[in-house]
Design a protein that fits this description.
The structure is a homodimer. By secondary structure, the first copy, chain A, is an alpha/beta fold. Chain A contains 19 helices and twelve strands.
């Protein structure tokens, strides 16, 4: 279990600093013709400076808000006192949210609470409720959540900045109706809305019906919202120290103040990933060697893909850009993906994430000493084994001239996780500048949404419905392509 | 919930046949220059015929065993009677396994049992035990499983064909020691080994110590083992109808008997994926629109990556081959990955998996009729919404000239899941022939393992330990590449 420490102690903070080792991205380590040269990296300095200036300007002028989230003051106290009320009243806390509204809460929960949290006793959960995140609209899946919670002892947290998210608002309508039928007008004591502070349908509904609310600042988009009320409220409810989390994010802000490419971990990692992509490695694998970090890889997958996957017009030419983030898990995926990473095409870069102190060792007792294939294991620990395997994978990748780098967390706690997530967000925002794209929009998904609106009979989308009908008609003429 | 049906009824079987719609892989649908032409596909016939012949020969001559798994007879009855004993005696069943030994059991459980299964009451679980799969060696993660089970009411299923898998055998040693301390020599009533029928260390240990065992046929490799005891024993324990599962696999065998490329769903899909890769789409996304199928995508990820990711010598030249499988989940990942899939580079092909009947609807009550952004939802169901969104994604991909195809399951039951998994295995084995590689080995991972053996002090790997020391020394000289 996590040791209690004082994240306000500067010495402890320095000891808890996360680090990036990128030697195996470089030709010096993995071989000429395979890696990046120091010269290539240095040549990026001018471009990096421009990207740095533009990003800091966006921050100063409040177009980009995630940098400011570590310093929320009053909202943090509001969240903490609401979370305490939930802890007293509720056995379960259910997030209704999709995309950034789900991935942030899930990543924090997996990282900072014990495994199989929902199976623990309330005492083992330090008196905190169970957590469920309804991040899909599979009817069996959604009904499956409602089956295992008692609505009268549950708080439902609907998260949508605009209030127009079809998936989340459908869930909201279902839950609201169910609660009203069981609890009458007390239904509103079981719902809390996280949404835009002023605009949008959900804000209006919450005001009209008297639901408790928490704000998502207007200049913070879904995938950059983990340190807004979106991530903080669920985290506080399940007992995560959200102040320590924000302190970690603030610390990363400090480390990333410099415009010097070689001193700034987020800028440096963005630049390395950018160069790798330009060198024919469009896939970026994130492979933590710790169960607790696996959903951070999933969170990052949205951040990197949705921010950088764009169609842009550059010098009058249409360009389709964006590396593909891939999540993996060590040591598990050594028995699934490593064969491909080591022997397959030179088309990916692997980021390993290591943990020094797991807060557990899992000692392997001495046994089968006479059997060569097993005897060597006794006396070691699972911690030693997973760390040896991580180094072994790093070596195998390097030996096979595969670009890889390593991020190390001294331990997995709210302070280091705060750093890691903030670093990824800064890295992504900065990478937008390197790719010459806007990392904060997502125009491509709008199109598909409109077809769905048309099919569901939403007013104003009759034209889209017509397109659907035409598509189905054309599909009929191509039905030979099926088996 | 799943309807009770008779999978022996030929009419029902035909109605439950899964289908592949590949029109959007074709230039006829997504546009000239973007898709595959009928001519290109037809030209593959000769190559396909050779691959078919080679594969069927491997089957006949018993080098490849997974085709025969649907017809196990006696082993199935043994598994069923052992599973019944476990159901009576145990509250939990814990798989100790990694790679194929974990992915198969997990995929079956997620597909065929209700969500949040471990949180249901024993009655809701039809009297079956909880299921845990220890598929990693994270010390906190492993101790986390041991914390939530009562060893005296738990059966531990150690799965390793050779018995030499370091991760699994370490877990085995830990659990065996713990059980011995608590139960003395009765420890063996709480362990069952799934391993090679004759060879290997685990077979020897099981024989010496009198553990119950189940066989993995010698000609069945880990990633093709889901229908051997590896997948069947855990499945039977949690109440899955393993005979229906095998009937589905057998049905797919029948459908794939033909060597005619255009009639054989597995061959056809392999060929389409192969051509897509050759056309500069090295990434293959599997995106089911059903929570229940998400771990099948993860299982497939091992199958496709480890089978096809290979370094081979062709005409005296070293070639690195292998597409990269990527798992996604609809509708969830529309809010994460779809932006990249639609606007990013033309470097991937997306396989959507749809379900016609979820066994649930999740009705959305009428509400907020006066609000345009929400009013249209009421009266529909979550099932309609997820299906509309899936078609919308298909259309958006197609409109943007992105190769995609759709697999449809009439419903998710043991018979359709049996078909789907068997189709994927045949497809993969056949693809090995198209790529001119051996889909059944994994030479690349051996290298990394040996470094780990060296670090853990295994005899015979002192040379590898020396390599590790040298690597660390060299790393010291490159420590400037860190921040």
């Amino acid at each position: 279990m996590q040791k209690k420490v004082n994240w306000k102690d500067p010495k402890w903070k320095t000891g808890m600093r996360i680090s990036l080792d990128y030697k195996n991205m470089m030709a010096d380590s993995i071989g000429k013709g395979y890696g990046i040269t120091l010269n290539e990296l240095e040549k990026m300095a001018a471009k990096a400076k421009r990207a740095d200036k533009a990003l800091k300007k966006d921050w100063r002028e409040r177009r980009v808000g995630f940098f400011d989230l570590p310093y929320q003051g009053e909202n943090v106290s509001n969240i903490k006192s609401f979370a305490n009320k939930v802890k007293t009243d509720c056995e379960a806390f259910v997030v209704l949210g999709i995309g950034g509204s789900a991935l942030g809460p899930i990543a924090l929960q997996t990282a900072l609470n014990p495994p199989h949290y929902n199976l623990l006793t309330k005492k083992e959960r330090n008196g905190c409720p169970r957590l469920f995140v309804a991040d899909n609209i599979d009817p069996a899946g959604f009904e499956g959540i409602l089956r295992v919670v008692d609505p009268e002892k549950t708080m439902f947290n609907v998260i949508s900045k605009s209030g127009g998210t079809a998936e989340t608002m459908s869930q909201f309508i279902i839950v609201r109706d169910m609660l009203k039928k069981r609890l009458g007008k007390n239904y509103k004591d079981h719902m809390v809305a996280t949404t835009d502070p002023e605009k949008g349908i959900l804000r209006k509904i919450a005001t009209d019906e008297g639901l408790e609310t928490f704000p998502i600042p207007a200049n913070v988009g879904g995938r950059f919202s983990v340190f807004s009320s979106v991530g903080l409220l669920p985290a506080a409810v399940v007992g995560i120290d959200i102040e320590e989390l924000l302190a970690g994010a603030a610390y990363m802000n400090e480390l990333c103040m410099t415009g010097d490419l070689f001193q700034n971990p987020a800028y440096l990692n963005a630049t390395l990933q950018f160069l790798a992509d330009k060198k024919g490695k469009p896939m970026s694998v994130m492979m933590p060697y710790a169960d607790s970090l696996k959903d951070i890889a999933d969170w990052y997958r949205q951040l990197w893909a949705e921010s950088l996957g764009k169609k842009v017009s550059l010098d009058g030419k249409i360009v389709h850009t964006g590396p593909t983030p891939i999540k993996a898990l060590g040591a598990t995926d050594q028995h699934s993906q490593l064969q491909l990473y080591i022997e397959g095409p030179f088309d990916k870069v692997v980021t390993l994430i290591g943990v020094k102190d797991f807060g557990a060792e899992a000692k392997i007792p001495k046994a089968y000493k006479e059997i060569g294939e097993l005897g060597y294991l006794g006396g070691h620990t699972l911690k030693e084994l997973i760390q040896a395997e991580m180094l072994a994978s790093e070596m195998a990748l390097t030996h096979n001239h595969r670009m890889n780098c390593t991020i190390t967390l001294p331990e997995v706690n709210a302070f280091t996780v705060g750093q890691l997530l903030q670093m990824m967000m800064i890295q992504t925002a900065f990478a937008g500048g390197l790719y010459n794209i806007d990392p904060f929009d997502q125009p491509g998904v709008e199109h598909g949404k409109q077809y769905a609106y048309g099919m569901m009979g939403r007013k104003g989308f009759e034209g889209k419905k017509k397109e659907v009908d035409e598509y189905i008609k054309k599909a009929g003429s191509l039905k030979g392509y099926a088996v």
